[in-house]
Amino acid sequence: MLICPPSFRTLWIFCFCSIVSFAGCGTTKKSGPVASEPVSVIVTEPVEKELADFAEFTGRTDAVESVEIRARVSGYLNKILYKPGSEVEAGAPLFEIDSRPYDAILDQNLGILATSEATLKQAKADMARAQDLHDKKVSTQSDYDKAVADLAHAEASIQSSQANVAQAKLNQDFTHVSAPVAGRTSREMITIGNLVNADTTALTTIVSIDPIYAYFDVDERTLLDIQKRIREKKMDSARERDDVPIYLGLANETGFPHVGTIDVVDNRVDSGTGTMQIRGRFDNADRVLTPGLFVRIQFQMGPARPRLLVPEQALAQQQGQRYVYVVTPENKIDRRNVTVGRLDGSMRVIETGLKPGESVVVKGQQRVRPGIEVRVETEKTTVGQSEPATKKPH
Q1: Which CATH class is domain 54-64+209-300?
Q2: How far is CA 275 from its chain centroid?
Q3: β-strands 374-382, 39-44: how paired?
Q4: Which residue among 44, 51, 91, 178 is least enclosed by CB atoms within 10 Å?
């Protein structure tokens, strides 16, 4: 009999057990694949609504009238007659310049005018006598000619004196600086006691408040679209009508609550920016608008027409292409590339790629892919309202 050492005996037992274990595994019954549940998604149908196309731009407000106030005569400033920053009416007093030198010049010219008037009176009397003597042929021709010349000289002197008096009165009036237009004043740019130089020294500025302008630039692509719509009679030309409406919104406002009209359309496209400037005119009786504000501008591009809208959350994008997932009648996912339009609240206009009544996935897009079967729940959507509801599988 062959007797194995203890170490070989242990190794033999280990190998035997391993062989038995592998043999047992080979006889194990295989289990089948476990069926997975369909992915659950929430869908909604596109909303149909009458909507118009709108174009939106950014712009700046500006005053209809803006005047830099300067003195028309030189002199020392005596008084400031307005409150800086206040609104004033046209003709309201603003500044007063020392008028005493101009008062003296006016008095001097009035005296010269009085002398000219006396001279004219004397010349008229001399002319009457000279005419009588000339008619009686008892005076020389030279005496008569001298009387005629003296009268003409006196009349010309009167005209010159009257013009000097008028100029002196103007200069006297110009020492009282008044507002040429109604509007809001700026701060005073010079204080009392300083010398004011005629037509040089700026005193303050005035900007009109009501109405007010808004300037904005239309890009070339939108401009071409507008021109095409005008040619096709789908919208009115602002050059032919003066009541084409536009809408304005401030930085802290929602929407475009201010309504105005297009006032001026420029006559050329700026080759440097590729834009054309347009000016709108807005009433500002409530003083909400201030010159220089950043504003948002919107105007309607043609009449309203039927549109399809889906919630913004239903849209996805890949490499610049917008798309939505649609559930087919067989409860399978289909991808639809779409062209989108303007926003209307939380809804987005779909121009192409979608039909009325289709089921658009609004929740669960991350768990689906084209072709898979899904379990559908609907979300009944109206503009501004969403109401969940259960939908049975087809």
Answers
A1: mainly beta
A2: 14
A3: parallel
A4: 91
Run of H or E including 380: strand 374-382
DSSP 345: T
- Highest mean pLDDT pick, 104-113, 128-137, 296-305: 104-113
Structure tokens at 381: 């959507």
Which residue from 134, 126, 115 is spatially nearest to 150, judged by alpha carbons? Answer: 126
pLDDT tens digits along 256-272: 999 999 999 998 999 89
CATH 3.40.50.720 fits 41-51+306-389, yes or no: no
Q: Give the CATH architecture of domain 99-174.
A: Orthogonal Bundle (1.10)
- Work out the burial of residue 105: count CB atoms within 10 Å of its CB; fewer than 13 is exposed, 13-18 middle, 19 or more buried: middle
Q: What is the DSSP annotation of 145-159? A: HHHHHHHHHHHHHHH
| Domain parsing of the chain, residue ranges | 41-51+306-389, 54-64+209-300, 99-174
Q: What single letter denotes the amino acid at residue 218?
A: V
Question: Would you list the DSSP string of 48-95?
Answer: EEEE--EEEEEEEEEES-EEEEE-SS-EEEEEE-S-TT-EE-TT-EEE
DSSP string, 210-260: SSEEEEEEEEHHHHHHHHHHHHTTSS--TTT-S--EEEEEETTSSS--EEE
Q: Which residue has the tokens 């010398």?
A: 195
Q: How many CA atoms lie within 13 A of 221 on its CB side?
A: 3
Size (the chain), residues: 394
76: how many CB neighbours lie within 10 A of its CB?
13
Q: Per the structure block, which two tokens stand in for 77?
A: 């400033």
